[in-house]
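TEACHING EXERCISE
Course module: macromolecular assemblies
Task: Read the component lines below, then compare them to the predicted structure of the full complex.
Student: A.B.
Group: 4
Components provided:
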Amino acid sequence: MSSPPLDATGPQAGAPDVAGPPPSGWTARLRARTLDTMSAEDLLPDRQPAYVASWIYVFGVATLAALLVVLVTGLVLAAAGPDWWHVSGVGHFVNSLHLWSVEIFFFVMVVHLWGKFWMAAWRGHRALTWMTGVLSFLVSIGAAFTGYLIQTNLDSQWISSEAKDGINASGAGAFWNVLDVGQMMLWHVTLFPLGVGLIAVLHVLLVRRHGVVPPLEAPAALDVDAGARLDADTEGRVSLP
Amino acid sequence: MTALHLPPGAGLLDLNGDGSYLSWGVLQISWANALVIALMVILFGLALVLPFPGAPEDGGDGR
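Instructor-supplied answer key:
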């Protein structure tokens, strides 16, 4: 018995088989989980609750803006190299942009941290959002530290020679040698930026999924901006999933 | 170390000298770091009290 001829207009041409088994495979599961977790409105909202109209809510996005400048100027420095950033006028300028964007990054990130701490931003199923922020802060410190180590000047020599005793005392010096410029350079331009970038993306996605945390004094009913996915607990408090 | 010869106005502060520190018992912090922390505290306080442009004054949901 021969097989039926393929028909470009038949069921195999693209129409989903609604009566068939649910889609399998990791791509289908990931797609279903992603769409189930976050809608396009969550990801790119065009409205925010009124309580977001406060200066204390500005510092998170200010941190992201500073991080973007850090990454872009870092890419330029990596492409041109130390001879360029030590000698040329434009190199000095980009090097300074990189330094000062890092300073602003930490400055506004600390204010952001204080703001979120004092409003207990882990409320309403936002613990993972808080912890990714903590993790991002810690990894950022490593990124900044290795940046100071790879300036390739006397300052970086001084900092690395001072730091080695502390790092070695912790035991980490056995595999993480702050006197090794090559190793520190690679950590600074690959692993740390990758870590900070991925954690920051995850942090922002979690903020988008659960919505911006309301102030402590705000009524619980205001905590609804991320959509209609509301859960009310036994005490009638409303929180996002 | 050879002194750097910077053009006039290259920096508001001379950063090539010895640093100055605040000491309080076992605690010690440079003036520069103390100044940065103070600025962060001031900015944090201002962010709490300054009105945000365009914010609804009645505290409504603003939608």
